[in-house]
Amino acid sequence: MTSNDHIQPKARILVVEDEAVAALSLQRGLRMSGYEVCGLTATGEEAVVMALQCKPDVILMDVLLAGENNGFEAARRIRSRADTPFVFLTGYADKWIEEQMQSLGENAYLLKPFGPEDVLEAVHAALARKKGEFEPI
């Protein structure tokens, strides 16, 4: 057994955010915390392609995106091909958003503005849910 045999691989995160400054801030914070950011995109269409290519462990998905698909539509397309947990990012908390998340089986979202610790907590909880552990955010 070598010294690297016990090291766990980094969780892979796909960031889907159409505000460039916010996307780069998320990417930087995740990398500084030891996560691998396997992709960064601003559109739902590209998110679907990237999710299938990089096979992330968690997807941070903005609800309102540039392009034809909003975050929920992109999430549905991804979910039809992969069982990847999402953490939705939104500037609005309303019944429509909650209904959309529930229709996808998700209960995690971050309300903008949020801090780096909020993102890390949400990612940690999403990874725990993926492993079958229940850990509410």
Structure in words:
- By secondary structure, this protein is α/β, with parallel strands linked by helices.
- The chain has a single domain, classed as Rossmann fold.
- It is built from 5 helices and 5 strands.
- The protein has helices at residues 20-32, 44-54, 71-79, 95-103, 116-130; strands at residues 12-16, 36-41, 58-62, 86-90, 109-111.
- It has a 5-stranded parallel β-sheet, with helices on both faces.
Query: CATH H-level name... which superfamily?
Result: Response regulator
Distance between the termini: 37 Å
Radius of gyration: 14 Å
CATH class: Alpha Beta
Overall residue-averaged pLDDT value: 87
Count of distinct strands:
5
Structural class: alpha/beta
Largest sheet: 5 strands, parallel
Low-confidence stretches: 1-7
Domain tally: 1
Q: Mind telling me which CATH architecture this is?
A: 3-Layer(aba) Sandwich
Overall outline? globular
Question: Which percent bin holds the helix content?
Answer: 40-55%
Order of helices and strands: EHEHEHEHEH
Please state how the strands of the largest beta sheet are arranged side by side. 2-1-3-4-5
CATH-defined fold name: Rossmann fold
Share of residues in strands: 15-25%
The total of helices stands at 5
